[in-house]
Amino acid sequence: MAVAVVTGASRGLGRALARALAAEGWSLVLDARGAEALGEVAAGLRSPVVALPGDVTDPEHRAGLIDAARSLGGVDLLVNNASVLGAEPLVPLAEHPLAGFRQALEVNVVAPLALVQAALPLLREAGGRVLNISSDAAVEPYETWGGYGSSKAALDHWSAVLAAEEPELRVWWVDPGDMRTAMYAAAVPEDDGSGRPLPEEAAVPALLELVNGGARSGRYAVSGRSAKEWGR
């Protein structure tokens, strides 16, 4: 049975993707900071699942995630989904708290790379896959999204380098598109998000298509219910 590690799995896209992978028979190692919410997600899944609450910036927590995956059989898929905005609500760069900017870099850039490094022996053994959740803010200069977008731009770049350095793996960095999530509500509280689809309606089918189809490494953007390679 294939094993996936999914960070930020207690809500939004992470929760929806974990549920979809479980429905397809994946064994799961799930991470989130909120123990209660993560436990509720895990309790609703029928696949083998290990739920480990913690902070992805904590080296001991990251090691625990990989150890748990090893106990289930390895790492076939690593989903780096956990993210922070750096400021809630979003603010212009002139007002952006530097502590929040550092936190966004630590959570959105450094921690995912650290998890890849920890999982790499198991990923190589499995010919595995890395799915990094990015954003259109990584490439578009949206006002007030500068801190978050900068972190996702850095994530995109090291993802591309990793794909070049590890050609036996599949590495995807994906803009999941507009979604109705708690993160978006915190970013732009004046927008109720009612016109945006839920993650399971739009992004998850496209991400499953990538995972199941073995698409080549690259940057993808969700369009409709499919993931299109960037620039194609």
UniProtKB/TrEMBL annotation:
Leading EC class: oxidoreductase
GO molecular function per UniProt: oxidoreductase activity
Entry EC no(s): 1.-.-.-
Superkingdom per UniProt: Bacteria
Signal peptide residues on this chain, from the entry's feature table: none
Keywords tagged on the record: Oxidoreductase
InterPro entries given in the database record: NAD(P)-bd_dom_sf, Sc_DH/Rdtase_CS, SDR_fam
Pfam annotation, one family: adh_short
Family: Belongs to the short-chain dehydrogenases/reductases (SDR) family.
Xref: PANTHER family: DEHYDROGENASE/REDUCTASE SDR FAMILY MEMBER 7B (PTHR44196), DEHYDROGENASE_REDUCTASE SDR FAMILY MEMBER 7B (PTHR44196:SF1)
Name of the featured protein: SDR family NAD(P)-dependent oxidoreductase
Organism whose genome encodes this protein: Streptacidiphilus alkalitolerans
